[in-house]
Design a protein that fits this description.
The chain is mainly beta. About 10% of the residues lie in helices and about 55% in strands. It has 5 helices and 20 strands. It has an 18-stranded antiparallel β-barrel. It starts with a helix and ends with a strand. The relative contact order is 0.10.
Length: about 425
């Protein structure tokens, strides 16, 4: 496996840094959370409740005044927790996916009075595109991402394009102005489906700023799958036949707590060869966008969201339920109190298509709606509890309507399986 030397080098960096903790005062900060989805399983004559569990832990450990280790891990059950309720194996040996989402070593170095340099070595998903985690870490701002991207499964929320692999990054943060620029170099196994391609070398550039009424984060980069066989079948040290372009932008115009316009847009994995062949379908399938005008009246927030997202991103969202293209109306109030406790109550109404953006350019209503029109309302509630935040959401599973279908079953709604309850808790450590 070609990643073993890289992983070994990363572990060595960690091993060299950790002993310094014994000679300096250390500090830890972090957060942890759990989310459970409760639903009805239809077993024919019998129905029983299904429960899935998702947990995450994230932390930052300071080894020295300017050296930090960051880590984030998550665990997701892949099988219903109650499926063995009638056996002796109940709540034992439940299949689950364990993810090492991030492990990074960060060195902070002031450059005089005007700038600070952050040099990092990382493994996993590191400050990805489509998440505001980079803006939060660099400028200390509150989250600005769309609430549609929430999943309560980690710090980053639903990710649009992951900066994922093993690599190094260098970010320059200017003190006199809220501006940061960064460069990244990393390797992963993305786009290595060809038999003779064994690794992908990636580069990325980043520019971000956070002014009182304008927040901006731009990243762009190339992925270069490296092969080991040339066109004549001869073994070579390395060959690059094509590159993949990925780019993403996050922008907020206005105050995050008042009237504002939120925009996210980008492209992911657009393939380019030496002889360019423009493929409009590829561009359409790779394009993602969120347009969200936001309004506030008193303590009530009203958001209108037009979205086109990668299907994996839509699947990880609490509200979109696998529908990548559509429109959402969200309303919530975070200025309510019950017995001196602040609470948030809100809801969403999502109207979406099962098909992606490229289907909209066919001009055929039958083809546009071939996957059906999905309608999904949700209501949610959150409040402070002990040292963290408790949240609960009741979601109506999407009701699919297809006006061009001739079968009555397309309009059937199973009321017993229509609802899904999600409850979660997140706390600082």
């Amino acid at each position: 496996m070609h990643k073993k030397p890289l992983i070994s080098a990363f572990v060595c960096c960690m091993a060299l840094a950790v002993p310094h903790a014994a000679r300096a005062e250390s500090f830890f900060s972090g957060s942890a959370g759990v989310r459970s989805d409760i639903y009805i399983i239809d077993g024919g004559e019998k129905k029983w409740p299904g429960v899935n569990l998702n947990l995450f832990f994230a932390g930052q450990f300071s080894l020295l005044d300017n050296v930090f280790i960051r880590t984030e891990v998550s665990l997701r059950t892949t099988e219903n927790v109650t499926s063995r309720a009638n056996t002796r194996a109940f709540l034992k040996n439940i299949p689950a996916e364990f993810n090492f989402d991030e492990l990074s070593l960060l060195w902070r170095q002031p450059l005089g009075k005007d700038a600070v340099n952050y040099l990092s070595v990382f493994m996993g998903t590191y400050e990805p595109t489509g998440s505001d985690i980079f803006l939060q870490r660099q400028f200390g701002i509150r989250p600005i991402s769309s609430k549609l991207m929430e999943n309560h499964l980690g710090l980053s929320g639903s990710i649009i394009y992951p900066l994922q692999g093993i690599g190094v990054g260098d970010v320059l943060h200017f003190v006199s102005h809220p501006i940061a620029t960064g460069l990244y170099l990393y390797v992963n196994s993305e786009n290595t489906e060809d038999p003779d391609t064994y690794v992908s070398l990636n580069t990325a550039f980043r520019f971000a700023c956070a002014y009182p009424h304008f927040t901006f984060d731009l990243s762009a980069g190339l992925g270069m799958p490296i092969g080991k066989v040339d066109a004549g079948g001869e073994d070579v040290f390395a060959i690059i036949r094509y590159v993949y372009l990925h780019s993403g932008m996050t922008m907020l115009i206005g105050n995050a707590q008042g009237h504002s316009m939120f925009i996210q847009a980008g492209i992911s994995n657009v393939k380019f060869k030496r002889k360019p062949e423009f493929d409009s379908d590829t561009i359409k399938d790779s394009l993602w966008v969120i347009l969200e005008p936001r309004f506030r009246i008193g303590g009530t927030h009203l958001h209108f969201t037009l979205f086109n997202l990668p299907i994996d991103t839509a699947n990880n969202s609490l509200y979109l339920t696998g529908t990548p293209l559509g429109f959402n109306v969200g309303i919530y109030n975070d200025n309510l109190y019950a017995r001196s406790k602040q609470i948030t109550i809100g809801g969403n109404l999502t109207v979406a298509l099962k098909n992606n953006l490229s289907e909209l350019f066919t001009g055929s209503p039958e083809k546009i709606l071939s996957g059906g029109l999905s309608i999904a309302p949700t209501v949610y509630f959150s409040t402070h509890l002990f040292t963290g935040e408790f949240n609960a959401m009741l979601r109506v599973e999407p009701v699919v309507i297809n006006p061009f279908s001739t079968t009555a079953s397309s309009y059937y709604i199973d009321w017993e399986n229509l609802f899904r309850l999600s409850i979660g808790y997140k706390t600082a450590l």
